[in-house]
Amino acid sequence: MIEVQVEIVIERNSPLVFDFLSNFENNPRWQSGMQECRFTSPGPLRVGSTYVQTARFLGRTIESNFEVIALEPGRMVKATSRSGTFPITFTRRVQPDERGARVSAIIEGDASGIFNLAQPLLKRMVQRSVESDYARLKALLESQADPADTGLGQRDQGPGDPE
Asked: Which DSSP string do the residues of 116-161 spell out, in sequence order?
C-alpha cells in the first residue's frame, strides 16, 4: 500500500476551491498526465456518483472508473477506483483558512504485482507528482482574475440531463 499526503493554502474562498476540486472534470486542468475525466452519472455530486478518467502513468495509458464513497458538501470528497490497473482511493478536504482555503489530500494506492517490487521508488514518484499537481492547482486558482466567475466550479448537470 502506498499513501501520500499533501497540504496547501490557496488564497481563494473555500467554497470556490471545493467546487473546483469536487468537479472531477477539472482534473486535467491541474493534474499532470490526466487526459480526460468525464462524469458517467447525473449531477449533482453525491455519494454513488461515478466518473471515468484517462491518464498517462509510467508511459502507459490507464482508464479507470471511480465512485464517490463519501461526501461532506463544501468540505470533503472521497472517491475510489472501481476498475483500472492501479487501485486508488483519494480524499480531498477543504477548510477555511485566514488566507483562503486549506486544502489537504490523501492518496492511497495498492501497488501490487510488478509495482510492489518498486514500492519505495513508486511512492517517491507519486509524492513528487502529487505535490507538483497541487502547486499547479494553487497557481491556477490564484491566477483567476475573477475567481467567482471561473466557470470551473461544481457541476449541476450530468450526462443526458436537461440544460
From this structure: HHTHHHHHHHHHHHHHHHHHHHHHHHHH-SSGGG-S-S-----TT-
